[in-house]
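Researcher: Structure for this, please.
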Amino acid sequence: MVERWTHGNEPRARAGPVADPVLAALDRVSGHGRSEDGLVRAAINGGGIPSELTIDAEAMRQAPAALSASILEALRHAHEDLGVQVGQELARAADAGDPAGTPSAAADAARAADDLDRMAQDVSGEFEVMRRRLFDAIDGR
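Model: Predicted structure, token format:
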């Protein structure tokens, strides 16, 4: 049995003519990652928001800390993959003469990549806080 959580794509505001192609490129990509043991898989949309989390039943038998680490690992790999996908989309846009391939769009993309990294760190940090609270509640602290 596989447990699955799915979240819809979040809408993004458009930010001007050059950003539109960049945001359109983000709408076309997603990042996918998995834990080293393959029992946890995650997907994130172009905005860096988790869109799918699949946990194999075998993973549910792991200690909570191990499961938590597997989930974070899958999410980190998904964010890394998203960075690759965004880079490929922007390279295709540059080859096609799309404004998304211009230097200003490249700078926008670099800022977006930095934002995605910060979001990934925030999500990981928030998950760690929730994990600690859960363990404290279980231990009666």
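Researcher: Any notable elements?
Model: The chain is about 55% helix and 15% strand. The CA atoms of residues 20 and 84 lie 20 Å apart.
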